[in-house]
Amino acid sequence: MIYFTLENFLIYFCLAWGTNIALNFLYVMKRYIPGFSSLDYPLDCRIKYRGERLIGESTTFIGLFLCLVISVIIFLIIHSVVWALIPLIVYFGHMIGSFIKRRFHKKGGEFLPLIDHGDYMLLLGIIFVASGYINFYFAFTALLITYILHPLACFIAFKLKLREYPY
Where are the domains of the chain? Predict the structure, then answer.
C-alpha cells in the first residue's frame, strides 16, 4: 500500500502528469519538426473497425517506446516496479480514451468530456485502487486536481500555439 502522504501523492501525480506532458510533446514535435510525423506511426496501424479507426493518430509506437523508456528510467532511479508502471498505464489510459472517442464517432479534434482531460488518470486510479496500491481518496484527489488543472494547461498550451485545440 502506498500511503496518502504529500510525498507519495506528488510522486504519483508528477509521474502521471510528466508522462502525459512527454506524450503531448510528441505532438508538438510532429507539428514543428519536418519529417518527424512520418516516423511517429499510429499503434492501430490505421486499421478500421465498422468504418472508424480503432484508436487514431495520437496513440503511436513512438509514444509507447517513450513510455517504456520512462518506466525503465524510473525503475532504475527509484527501484520500484509500482512507480515504474505509471508511464505505461498512462499510455494505455490514453489508448483506451482514444478507442472510446472513436466509438462515440469523435475525431481527434473533437472534445469528449471526462475522456479528453482525464483518461490516463482514470485508468491509473482504477488499476492502483483495485490492486490495493492506493486508496480511493488518493485516486479521487489526483483525478479531481487533473480535471481542474488539465483544461487550464491545455488552454495555455493552445495560446502558446503548442496545441491545435484549446481543450
Answer: 6-159
